[in-house]
UniProtKB/TrEMBL annotation:
This is D-3-phosphoglycerate dehydrogenase. The keyword NAD applies. It comes from the Bacteria. Belongs to the D-isomer specific 2-hydroxyacid dehydrogenase family.
Amino acid sequence: MPRALLLENIDPVAVELLSSAGYEVESLRGALDEADLTAALDGVHLLGIRSKTQVTADVLARRPELAAVGAFCIGTNQIDLVAAAAAGVAVFNAPYSNTRSVVELAIAEIISLARRLTDRDRALHAGTWDKSATGSHEIRGRTLGIVGYGNIGSQLSVLAEALGMRVLFYDLEDKLALGNAEACGSLEELLERAETVTLHVDGRGGNAGLFGAGQFSRMRRRSLFLNLSRGFVVDHEALRDHILSGHIAGAAIDVFPDEPKEQGDEFSSVLRGLPNVILTPHVGGSTQEAQYDIGRFVAGKLVDYTRSGTTTLSVNLPAVALHGSSAARFALLHRNVPGVLARADALVGEHGLNVDGQVLATRGELGYVVTDVNGELPPALLATLGELPETVRLMTFPPIA
């Protein structure tokens, strides 16, 4: 029976879907370091992770039986995508499933910071009745600056505008402005005009240290700051200094440079205990609805890949989906050089088979072809295809015993 390993407390719906597809599934609550992950992957064909587990080139090299990795989250920077592609390991993620959850948390935190609900809550729990409007503002009519106008940033733009906010955004790529949102020509322009700044950038290496003392200094005095994107993007020491000086009136942080690996582990941050600061433990996408949708979506992609070779929405392999059915199917991931498809088809013909259907796609240095044939796949044909110098990985459907 093929095996699947799920880490970091992935929603049970993923276990159900993989089990019903014939996989023996092991599910663990926490992340694993490189050595433990390598050991745990012995005999495993599918791996499911969230944001903390690092899938390195060394792990992939030591476990060639691994066929696919599912990132049950948005980001994939915790996976060496180049090494995975070179090893023929498909990677899938969930780019849309938790978008609404992150956006709703951002809206809730913007309102909470503007109304200083954190301070009011803390005072009342301490037994102090402080009924005052001092420092408390509506968000209607105020200017929100969104850094990163992707799936989350653009949806936040729509909801913020519906609440009466003016919306500015900045993105490295040209993006279509939704509603009345206005694109800024630079990050500096956005910082100087916005009263609330929220980060929704991706995990690419170039974003490390994106926001530090220089950026906080450019923000308007008594503005608000949120980061629900990546922990390594923000200099927390600089943020602390600007909160204590009063330049930044409040902040909400959901992601951190160093996060505990498991539930209940100790959390340390220089931002603890600061006034009007909301700290949440990386829960932007952690609603029951979002985690269910992510579990269903990514597990479904893993099942589709292992059942039919479908790579639609894979983040590292060419996208191929061959519809229909035939007597047998094989998928050949290969180096993208001329002549491979012609050679494969010729081999099919030499073994007395016809091609019933075929789809080829390329992506950089890789080509991926899925082929339906009108009869059983002879072991000699599979052996020859597997030995082609360009072959990276060969899969059959249904699997050949």
